Amino acid sequence: MSTSTPPGSDIEAASPSGTRPRVVLGVSGGIAAYKACEVLRRFTESGYDVTVVPTAAALQFVGAATWSALSGKPVSPDVWTDVHQVPHVRIGQAADLVVVVPATADLLAKAAHGLADDLLTNTLLTARCPVVFAPAMHTEMWEHPATAANVETLRSRGLFVIEPAEGRLTGKDTGKGRLPDPDEIFELSVQVLARGASAPDLAGRHVVVSAGGTREYLDPVRFLGNRSSGLQGYALARAAAARGASVTLVSANVALPDPAGVTVIRVETTAELREAVVAATASADAVVMAAAPADFRPTATSEHKIKKAADGSSPSIALTQNPDILAEISHDRARPGALIVGFAAETGDNTGSVLELAAAKLARKGCDLLVVNDVSGGAVFGSLDNEAVILGADGGRRAVPHGSKAALAHVIWDEVVSRLQD
Ligand code: CTP
Q1: Are residues 224 and 339 in the same domain?
Q2: Structural domains of the chain, count
Q3: 271 shares its domain with 381
Q4: Ligand 1, residues at Cβ distance < 6 Å
Q5: In the beta sheet, which residues pair with residue 372?
Q6: Cβ–Cβ < 8 Å for 174, 166
Q7: Whose CA is nearest to atom 4 of ligand 1?
Q8: Which domain holds residue 75?
Q9: Rounded average pLDDT per 10-residue block, the chain, 422 residues
Q10: For ligand 1, what atom is nearest to the CA of residue 329?
């Protein structure tokens, strides 16, 4: 399976044995176990062969009947059922992917130290395929030095430990430790599976992605905006997370769930987008400006709703040009060696073709790579697909044929990774 064609929600990848990919869904004992049912459904409905391995504590939250009915297979937490089939070795050896949802602090500790006192921990020791842990616990437990050290150990072995989300926890408290959206755990997991034995080549890297379209307010209820859906930026953030990066996603007015393991900063205006991107860029190895910041804002924003004039006359709106964030971070180079990627939506005109205008934009903005979309006829906005040409300041040029935005995202990261210095 090529790294540039992740399977999305349909199986395009077969397991190495040529059959349906075999996924082990491990479930440890946390209240978020009920959300693992959704992850299980996404896998089974997409055609994966799923074996659920709950711990005894997980069965206190969701019973064996639920896992068995949803997976179509018998379920046991211990190694003493069907011993003649040697399940404690066979299940892990045969797996193409192991995903643990939720992973408790206890399970992470056992996995980091190689304990094997039930079927799930035995499976983790015998699996040689990619392993994804989706932790969920209270903030104190996640931040405890013991848990932090265990997570570090697991990541240093090339295993994926998804950064938990922030939000409502079991009780009335909120904080870091919430399980990410089940659909997003599924999307990340299938991308990890599609990459197979490839090393997580963005592990240890911090990347920043901007997404969506900014709003510039005329008054408290009206704004100037644009048609950017944020889909390409979210696909980039998801793909980077699946390659092991620590990802900051600066999101302008996007109505999509947070990608699993990604830190999302929400903004509305170009000024807010600029502030968030510039701040995150200081520690970034790569920045991808997939957002569509408004080029202009109203010179003045009315504090009150603008009323229609009694004489029927139309107001005129004075506009001021917004700062060009891509040009600013490309020229400032806050972190030498960081790769900066821009997007160009072009239609071509009487001064030049799409690629001629894009080449001029690459030089003008000073970024390292420019992803060029031909948007004649509004082709890209809101679509799940994309096609592009990636131009490099180093003279590189790569045409990416029509495909999913996820596939384009992986090609962009391929180009970034090939240019990152150690
Ligand atoms: N961009 C930015 N800040 C702005 C406008 C655009 O950082 N104020 C970034 C976008 O995120 C994108 C790239 O610049 O990565 C190209 O955006 P585009 O709208 O195609 O370019 P413009 O500079 O607005 O040029 P044009 O005159 O063609 O509209």
Answers
A1: yes
A2: 2
A3: yes
A4: 270, 289, 291, 293, 295, 322, 324-326, 342-345
A5: 344, 389
A6: yes
A7: 324
A8: 11-195
A9: 40 62 97 98 97 98 97 90 84 96 98 97 97 97 98 95 89 89 97 88 96 97 94 97 97 97 97 98 97 96 93 93 98 95 92 94 98 78 81 96 95 97 84
A10: 7
